[in-house]
Amino acid sequence: MCIKIRPFFCGLILGLLSLYTLATPADFSGEDGYRLWLKYDELDNTKLKKAYIKQLSGVYLDASSATGKVIKQELELALPALLGKPLTFNTKADNASLRIQLNQSPSALISGDGFSIQSQGKHLNITANTQVGLLYGTFHFLRLVQTEQSLAKLDITQSPKIQLRMLNHWDDLDRHTERGFAGESIFDWHKLPDYKEQRYYDYARANASIGINGIVPINVNSNALILSPAYLQKVQALADVFRPYGIKVYLSIKFSSPQQLDGLATSDPLDKQVQQWWQNKTAEIYKLIPDFGGFLVKANSEGQPGPGDYGRTHADGANMLAKALKPFGGNVLWRAFVYAHDSEHERSLQAYTEFVPLDGQFEDNVSVQVKNGPIDFQPREPFSPLFGAMPQTSLAMEFQVTQEYLGFSTHLAYLGTMYKEVLDADTHVKGTGSSVAKVIDGSLEGHSLSVMAGVANIGADRNWTGHIFGQANWYVLGRLAWDHELSAEQIAHEWVAMTLTHDVKSSEQIVAMMMASRENIVNYMTPLGLHHLMDTGHHYGPGPWVDNLGRADWNPTYYHRADDFGIGLDRTSKGTNGVSQYAPYWQEIFSDPAKTPDELLLWFHHLPWDYKMRSGQTLWQELVAHYYTGAAAAEQMQQDWLTLKNNIEPNQFNQVRMALAIQVKEAKWWRDACVLYFQSYSKMPLPMGFEKPKHSLEYYQSLKFPYAPGQG
Amino acid sequence: MCIKIRPFFCGLILGLLSLYTLATPADFSGEDGYRLWLKYDELDNTKLKKAYIKQLSGVYLDASSATGKVIKQELELALPALLGKPLTFNTKADNASLRIQLNQSPSALISGDGFSIQSQGKHLNITANTQVGLLYGTFHFLRLVQTEQSLAKLDITQSPKIQLRMLNHWDDLDRHTERGFAGESIFDWHKLPDYKEQRYYDYARANASIGINGIVPINVNSNALILSPAYLQKVQALADVFRPYGIKVYLSIKFSSPQQLDGLATSDPLDKQVQQWWQNKTAEIYKLIPDFGGFLVKANSEGQPGPGDYGRTHADGANMLAKALKPFGGNVLWRAFVYAHDSEHERSLQAYTEFVPLDGQFEDNVSVQVKNGPIDFQPREPFSPLFGAMPQTSLAMEFQVTQEYLGFSTHLAYLGTMYKEVLDADTHVKGTGSSVAKVIDGSLEGHSLSVMAGVANIGADRNWTGHIFGQANWYVLGRLAWDHELSAEQIAHEWVAMTLTHDVKSSEQIVAMMMASRENIVNYMTPLGLHHLMDTGHHYGPGPWVDNLGRADWNPTYYHRADDFGIGLDRTSKGTNGVSQYAPYWQEIFSDPAKTPDELLLWFHHLPWDYKMRSGQTLWQELVAHYYTGAAAAEQMQQDWLTLKNNIEPNQFNQVRMALAIQVKEAKWWRDACVLYFQSYSKMPLPMGFEKPKHSLEYYQSLKFPYAPGQG
């Protein structure tokens, strides 16, 4: 074989031949992640299993409704598998140990689709005022079994704290997913309405199990075609699948649809014909989907059409749609994510500037949907100043579940801690205790319409979210929308027990990894309040040097303002005055570097490189230390995971192992690229003890990734 | 709830409420299709299972090589599952009933990666000259068990008839798949090289099980980036996964890569620097991938760069690459799919015109890859006249597995019959018996390099091919590349037994459906030799009226030539003279409508609407009858499938059921649109007894599908 080959390659090939025979084929056993947290593997705790079997000798359930059928099907799927024993259904309630029944008359202890799970002698009763409440109660009951909780003396009563608990998919009609990192959209519009993927049902089950009751299947950068008769039939098919699971479908709409679909001369919301068009279209939708949820609207933002095109306000636009929806019980979710390139205001101020003057003008079936922070889903932002600033308006929370700025689907970032940080933040608008959560759930100002939405991280990847731990972010979004008083740690424990392992020591270790994970990423990407340092377009990897984009406020340099003097964006009254949009309590804190928490320091202040930090170190030293701490934490996480090999199913273990290797590599890339770039301004040496970056700044600046996923 | 609602909608909503409670949730049980034909469910034939258990009491295998490990892993996966009994491995061959061993010295009865399976007393011996031969023998052995064949007195010896058995993926670096209808590409380039999907291994297993030994993971419309160092690392990772399975990676290349990647002034294949560039690049690839397969090239076709840009021939281009690859044992697959808008020749003649004069000029590690027909994967074409016309050149067969023109992934079309029709076609270039198969396998002219490639229908859909029956097309491609003398029916039986059911009556019925399925589609899309009638761009649905595209030869009207006189493209000497490219035997037949087979009549002839067919009917009557027969056959297939409900696993049954509903709908759409359109020329009435089209021609012409999948 080597005769014709040049000697060098001949030796090389022989060398490699001996090497590559050592390659190990994949391990086929183990969990591929498709089942999410609804795994239902037989419990290994024999004692507890015996107790469960005794307590669950028979089930009584009225399965005549579609939701009843879903409950029955879930029990048939779960209990025999968990307990290793066939399931018996009793035709009479008296004989059954587990009884799932609607309340005879509505219970006042429960609101909406809440439920009770109560022990009564030998019986366990799941009750609710609605069929969907029974479904939620059933899933909660199954969670108790999955997480190996005692079923003795139960007295649980829960009602959702937030009314609309939603997933927003930024999915296009061609199945491209904007900011999607787990494969293309799960919604196969071409094959709908006739072909209903099994995946749609499993998606519905997963959502119902965590209380999600609304989904928007298409991108906020919408497409008028979604409202065409052919596509509405497809939407109807999805709604039919989701209905028994208590899930309503909403649609992102294009504000210019009247012109694009039916050739109207205008889409001015004050135009009578336009108003009539929306009324007709809405009626057409409700004919097909009697429980249609409503419209989600991105208007006059990043090039999308909107009422501003006609000199009208967001309220004018939202109210036109709200009036069309009101007769049918639908809602409008009007997004506050707006910023204009010609605005006199710095970007973080613009949503407040545009929306606060409209407070009181929105119809009561409109909720203004606000991203958690004033910029755009950065690893850390302060809470948006809109929360608390529009007391007469229902404000919806928009979290991002997909990790656009948090490492795509290869970085382990548990977002429960981030969501909680925002929800627990105290706006102080009505004194201490005016938390963001209370703004959102309506309790602070007495709104009945309450909404929490997550931008989905779901794609056609077999494990749904690319990274197994991405599943935890879908899970925690639903759980917190149901009850924002749950702790991130408690939810992480639930998820780990259902998804990965019941082993106590392993669980503790995994939960600890999760709890620290988001802060690790903040550290190696954007520590100390830095933000928007990512590369252009795809947002993959570091690009703090980018300064040449079409709009100033798309450039990282707009946000970090690094120069020979120092770094950070001055948002005090001497700067862009972003602080002025917060309650006086926060104005005082955010205006003073000495009072501003370290983690938001450079969000609010431009400080010299030798600024003395609380720790006694200079700003430069501390900045660098954060970058190195973050990258080191990623390495530690990788080490910790490897110790779990024998306690995690091989397929899950390997998926996470491979992702962590990428995360370690990319954490160092972020660290080195940012440190080298900022060093070009600080002109200060790398503090002692830190490993030198592998490459030059020019090298990092030269990297290009034209096919990184999740292009906007 | 209805108080505020207008009475009409109130009634409607109540009506629908009662309806939608009847919606049935999905059945979660059953096979989702991921396992393909490697299902390994426990055999239900108890008697046979007992016999197998007795015959397979222990296995001896040297699993020290990477391929040996793969064999061991497959046996461990398959046998315990099929037999319901743990597997024993013996450390000594003497004790084992199943012995898998390399021949001590190469057997002359076997060539390449062939194998023997032979009974010897109580032993069953699988032997081969190569590790990969043992893997193929093992998969063949498992197929015997899966299809419930006797293991007694086996005496099987097989060697592949074709050397390179390949899948070509038309997948782009952003995971878009040109002509892909089963989700996006399975190759996640972004996460490579670090993240190796379990799917890659299962893909390799499936390919190895049918003898496929080469894959091209990226589109023939290639991207220079694939040869950049960063991407070559990703390719290396794939090659490392595939190697133990006997699969080599090849790359589609962009002919202008020297300019695009490294800024050379030209990509002229006669330029020394360009030649050196390719030599260096090739060496760089082999450093990473010592068993790299070679290059697949689409040049000077549909806008791709090529040697023609510099006035050089295809041979100049191919030979430059061949010389760079030769020292390493690599091959060039140079595609003959070329046609130019400025050619004086009708499109079907152009590949022949360009390539035949180059016969004898290609290096011996070049194979010219020819699509099966002279146009482009139509439901039916005559065999390409290139087969037999280039005796001094290795010719590779390019079949399309993905159903670009055969109903995407919702029409049931078993392509085994089509592949066989082409392979069995007799070119008559060296007298009777000069089959296309003999051209391809090299036996007709004594070529040692032989290639069969299929354009893959594989995507990220859980069942790989969108339609369960699409799996059969992947399967039959591999099986026929291994042995083109197998019958399509025999292969269908194998596949059904492994994939769907062992029930004899059901199998017979399913195989009958499969065997008729492609002709059904020909009938409702392009009967009697019609071709290229599909709509623009996406090729979804009928568009016989399209006449306004950028190039004449992209328009359906270019091919059907319907006018007031008649229909069909005259390719006789009085027309484009396409017949002249065939052997005299065929020239005589194809030149005379009376001798031309009905199924190719309008391919070769433009005939009046009242032309008298063999059947005695007019051409118009027969054309219409074919369309109606095809659509009726689709309905019959749907009915037949529904009778199988209890013999097919629910998930598989439902997937096919939904697809068949779409197929029936679309078959009628094709029928009605084409009949109405051709009627506008024939001016003849619909023959008696045929159901009137549902809509007007204008309606069908108005349909638009901007987001149909598989855009080119």
TrEMBL record, chains A, B:
One GO biological process term is: xylan catabolic process
Give GO cellular component annotations, separated by semicolons: extracellular region
UniProt keyword ATP-binding, yes or no: no
Do you know which SUPFAM superfamilies this protein is assigned to? (Trans)glycosidases, beta-N-acetylhexosaminidase-like domain
Q: Write out the catalysed reaction.
A: Hydrolysis of (1->2)-alpha-D-(4-O-methyl)glucuronosyl links in the main chain of hardwood xylans
**InterPro entries (alphabetical):** A-glucoronidase_C_sf (IPR037054), GH (IPR017853), Glyco_hydro_67_aGlcAse (IPR011395), Glyco_hydro_67_aGlcAse_N (IPR005154), Glyco_hydro_67_C (IPR011099), Glyco_hydro_67_cat (IPR011100), Hex-like_dom2 (IPR029018)
The segment(s) forming the Glycosyl hydrolase family 67 catalytic domain are 145-464
> Which key words tag this protein in UniProt?
Carbohydrate metabolism, Glycosidase, Hydrolase, Polysaccharide degradation, Signal, Xylan degradation
Where in the numbering of this chain does the Alpha glucuronidase N-terminal domain appear? 36-141
Ranges for domain Glycosyl hydrolase family 67 C-terminal come to: 465-689
Coiled-coil region list:
none
* Residues annotated as catalytic: E302, D376, E404
The region annotated as signal peptide is: 1-23
Q: What is its EC number?
A: 3.2.1.131
> Could you give a GO molecular-function term held by this entry?
alpha-glucuronidase activity
Spell out the family assignment given in the record's similarity comment: Belongs to the glycosyl hydrolase 67 family.
Assembly description = Homodimer.
**Entry protein name:** Xylan alpha-1,2-glucuronidase
